[in-house]
């Protein structure tokens, strides 16, 4: 696969084609994921930095299952096996949340991929207030602010 090709795997496509925009909706699902994040001091380079454990961001190495349990479960990672549908290879095809919404693996990963923007918004604005945020300067991650309703 060349650098410019879009991958055929839906999860890799989400990760490689995600583009942060100038407007973003902070949703409860983002805060639910953050609550379950495995955060620590990362010693990968230089002096290190705080961050998510990249191998086990939510405690286990099967990130897709963790995302399904957190997003579609009851808040305690309890999820009924009947909520899952698997493909022939045994991978999650989709999972239904408690409101009946179907989540494909790429949908789960999209919410996970958005967490860097979520953290920028929360830390900059010092709030967990849900809703729409706008970025005044495309090149600046420090310019997110709550969108004023007209």
Task: Give a written overview of the molecule.
- The protein has 5 helices and 8 strands; from the N terminus they run αβαββαβββααββ.
- By secondary structure, it is of the alpha+beta class.
- The protein has one domain.
- It has a 3-stranded antiparallel sheet. Strands 4-5-6 form a 3-stranded antiparallel sheet. Strands 2-3 form a two-stranded antiparallel ribbon.
- Helix 1 runs parallel beside helix 4 and helix 3 packs across helix 4.
- It is globular.
- The model has no long low-confidence stretch (mean pLDDT 87).
Strand percent estimate = 15-25%
Task: Tell me the count of domains.
Answer: 1
Average pLDDT across residues?
87
> Would you list the SSEs in sequence order as H and E?
HEHEEHEEEHHEE
Helix content: 25-40%
Which strand order do you get reading across the main beta sheet? 1-7-8
Indicate the structural class.
alpha+beta
In oligomeric terms, what are we looking at? single chain
Shape: globular
Instruction: State the distance separating the first and last CA atoms.
Output: 46 Å
Q: Tell me about the largest β-sheet.
A: 3 strands, antiparallel
Summarize this structure as a short list of keywords or feature phrases.
single chain, 150 residues, alpha+beta, 8 strands
């Amino acid at each position: 696969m060349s650098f410019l090709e879009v991958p055929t795997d839906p999860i890799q496509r989400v990760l490689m084609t995600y583009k942060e925009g100038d407007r973003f909706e902070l949703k409860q699902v983002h805060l639910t994921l953050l609550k379950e994040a495995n955060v620590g001091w990362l010693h990968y380079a230089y002096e290190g930095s705080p961050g998510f454990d990249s191998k086990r961001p939510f405690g286990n190495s099967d990130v897709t299952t963790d995302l399904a349990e957190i997003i579609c479960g009851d808040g305690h990672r309890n999820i009924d096996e009947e909520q899952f549908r698997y493909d022939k290879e045994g991978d999650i095809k989709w999972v239904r949340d408690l409101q009946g919404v179907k989540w494909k693996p790429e949908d789960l990963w999209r919410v996970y991929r958005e967490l860097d923007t979520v953290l920028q918004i929360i830390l900059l604005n010092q709030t967990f207030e849900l809703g729409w945020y706008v970025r005044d300067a495309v090149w600046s991650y420090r310019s997110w602010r709550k969108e004023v309703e007209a």
